[in-house]
Amino acid sequence: MLKSLFGKKEEEQAKEQQPPREKQIVIEGQEEQVEETLSLLSKEGEGMLDEAIEEVETAVKEAAKTSLRDLRLMEEGRCPDCGRKLNQFLFTSVCSHCGWFAPITAEEGHTIVHLKDGSTFECGTTFDTKGGYILCITDGVVRAKIDKNNVNYEEFAWSEEEIARRRQQRPSESPGRAESA
Questions:
Q1: Which domains are present in the chain?
Q2: pTM above 0.85, yes or no
């Protein structure tokens, strides 16, 4: 139903046997809410539904533009928040002006979350959420949701082999120094 409302033709729908995995994950468990919302908008009239669909499409386009802008800035070694030059390190980029940073997670290593009570939790990678939690993820599965107030610090345990490979890929850079022109 969603695809037909967002302008997909029947032939295109038939070609798409399954929705992309990302869409399945986002919508999973929300089908009822989507149907209820669409029903409510339909009752308000065709114009209201068309307006809502147009707003959604505009928001998606704006988000895509923003993502492209940010990626292009980072590609040029610039901060996506303030536009200043980024300091490039082996596994992260940091803006010394505004504090923005983008770490690269280990492919072979792991992350150790050190809690304030002295205990630790190991996982593949972590995500800092807006909701005040650290999500600990291993093999694509959320293994723990830890309140940020309970976290002392996160340790990134890189394998020596991965560090050596990264150094070979970026021989012009020294650890802890900004990229030179």
A1: 2-75 (no CATH), 105-169 (2.30.30.100)
A2: no
